[in-house]
């Protein structure tokens, strides 16, 4: 490399949530910093997140909201930089926000405000953001990282990998972060799509397709014998491909291929008892009409067909039948065909194994001056602002130790 090569204290690969946040904080501490990204625009995922309003954090974020082979790994960073620290930053920039539900904070106006804020912070402290830059080689020589890029060569003392996961390749996601980690001897834990809609087998798909667009509040759970147990009380949405909505997206992160899922379509309701009571009070009422008191008509009709409920008055329904109907509704068991995969997934589960990373500094324990932040690591949050909070917290923790 020639003498003219530009040298930085820190090169960050990835101008997403984690990369931009880390750049501003490291620059604020006096480091010379450049962020490189192959995309034309910084923070593309932020821009489309939360339906364009960015669910930028969750007030109640804690280690329990994250999946990782090491569930304790995220604790230190979440403590070093809490949701309240990010909220304070948002408030300093005068960005209006509101709580939608369950501690989820969204911009009132647009996710663009969050990207502008991060870019302003970078500019204020002198961190450079260089887009449209393809990185073709990264080497480590004489305590320096040497990067060959489509925009020339650069060197740095520290290298921060903030390339994110594989979800939404359309937005610029690549496996580059994993490849770089492997190049320097890191272990990559198996990756798969998370926070993603389920697809159904053909028969189920045909049966439930006409419910497409219908949303119901449910309790969705992995089966008792599932590899990972989880249960979420949120809305479920029927789609023309399968099942989506917050409850299903959350569950998808815990579900393993081939497992069944259990859905309670009438949570917190004594259905069997209510049906028996109604049988006494209104014996001539049809079973399906009775169910329509609590469930959408379309859903009752489709379930009656798929579960084979007879078209009888309540008076003609014995306890055994009512029990079956209650179970069909409150312990509805389905075997998804799979998920929609990275094309629509919000996150990637798995990634760079945290066993080889310091939880306090995000620094590699096997390669000098190499750091990992954000989604590229094996830390994945629930739906609801937890993934951005991980990006902010891990980025900050790293920035303070560069
Ligand atoms: P991120 O993906 O943000 O950034 C990685 C950057 O690296 C990108 O800019 C990419 O272009 C760049 N890059 C990749 N490969 C490269 C290469 N080879 N060379 C150079 N650059 C490269 N979370 C949340 O908390 N609240 C929400 O509302 C949402 N909503 C949401 C909606 C949708 C549609 C998606 C897909 C995701 C979400 N998320 C979310 C998840 C959240 O967006 C995600 O967890 C964070 O953006 C992760 O931040 P990172 O900085 O780690 O990666």
From TrEMBL:
Domain RsdA/BaiN/AoA(So)-like insert residue range list: 192-347
Domain RsdA/BaiN/AoA(So)-like Rossmann fold-like: 9-400
Cofactor: FAD
SUPFAM superfamilies, per the entry: FAD/NAD(P)-binding domain, HI0933 insert domain-like
Coiled coil start-end: none
InterPro entries, per database record: BaiN-like, BaiN-like_dom_sf, FAD/NAD-bd_sf, RsdA/BaiN/AoA(So)-like_dom, RsdA/BaiN/AoA(So)_Rossmann
Pfam families cross-referenced by the UniProt entry: HI0933_like, HI0933_like_1st
Keywords, in A-Z order: FAD, Flavoprotein
NCBIfam families on file: aminoacetone oxidase family FAD-binding enzyme
Protein name according to UniProt: NAD(P)/FAD-dependent oxidoreductase
The organism of origin for this protein: Pseudidiomarina fusca
């Amino acid at each position: 490399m020639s003498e003219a090569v530009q040298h930085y204290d820190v090169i960050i690969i990835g101008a997403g949530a984690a990369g931009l946040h880390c750049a501003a904080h490291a620059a604020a501490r006096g480091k010379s910093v450049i962020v490189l990204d192959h995309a034309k625009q910084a923070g593309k995922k932020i821009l489309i997140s939360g339906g364009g309003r960015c669910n930028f954090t969750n007030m109640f974020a804690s280690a329990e909201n994250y999946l990782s082979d090491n569930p304790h790994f995220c604790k230190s960073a979440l403590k070093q930089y809490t949701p309240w620290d990010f909220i304070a930053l948002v408030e300093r920039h005068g960005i209006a926000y509101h709580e939608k539900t369950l501690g989820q904070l969204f911009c009132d106006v647009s996710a663009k405000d969050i990207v502008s804020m991060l870019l302003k912070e970078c500019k204020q402290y002198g961190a450079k953001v260089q887009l449209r830059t393809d990185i073709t080689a990264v080497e480590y020589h004489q305590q320096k990282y040497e990067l060959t890029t489509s925009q020339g060569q650069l060197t740095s003392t520290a290298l921060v990998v903030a390339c994110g996961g594989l979800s939404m390749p359309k937005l610029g996601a690549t496996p580059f972060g994993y490849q770089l980690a492997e190049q320097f001897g890191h272990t990559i834990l198996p990756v798969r799509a998370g926070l993603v809609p389920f697809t159904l087998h053909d028969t189920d798909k045909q049966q439930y397709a006409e419910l497409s667009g219908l949303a119901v509040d449910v309790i969705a759970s992995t089966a008792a014998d599932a590899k990972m147990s989880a249960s979420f009380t949120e809305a479920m949405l029927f789609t023309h491909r399968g099942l989506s909505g917050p409850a299903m997206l959350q569950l998808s992160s815990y579900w393993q291929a081939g497992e069944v899922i259990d859905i309670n379509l009438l949570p917190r309701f004594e259905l069997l008892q209510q049906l028996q009571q109604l049988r006494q009070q209104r014996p001539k009422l049809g079973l399906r009409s009775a169910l329509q008191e609590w469930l959408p008509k379309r859903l009752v009709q489709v379930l009656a067909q798929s579960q084979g409920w007879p078209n009888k008055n309540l008076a003609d329904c014995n306890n055994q039948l009512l029990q079956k109907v209650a179970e069909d509704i409150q312990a509805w068991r389905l075997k998804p065909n799979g998920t929609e995969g990275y094309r629509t997934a919000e996150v990637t589960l798995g990634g760079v194994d945290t066993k080889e990373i310091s939880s306090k500094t995000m620094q590699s324990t096997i390669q000098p001056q190499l750091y990992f932040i954000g989604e590229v690591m094996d830390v994945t949050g629930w739906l609801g602002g937890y993934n951005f909070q991980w990006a902010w917290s891990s980025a900050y923790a790293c920035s303070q130790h560069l």
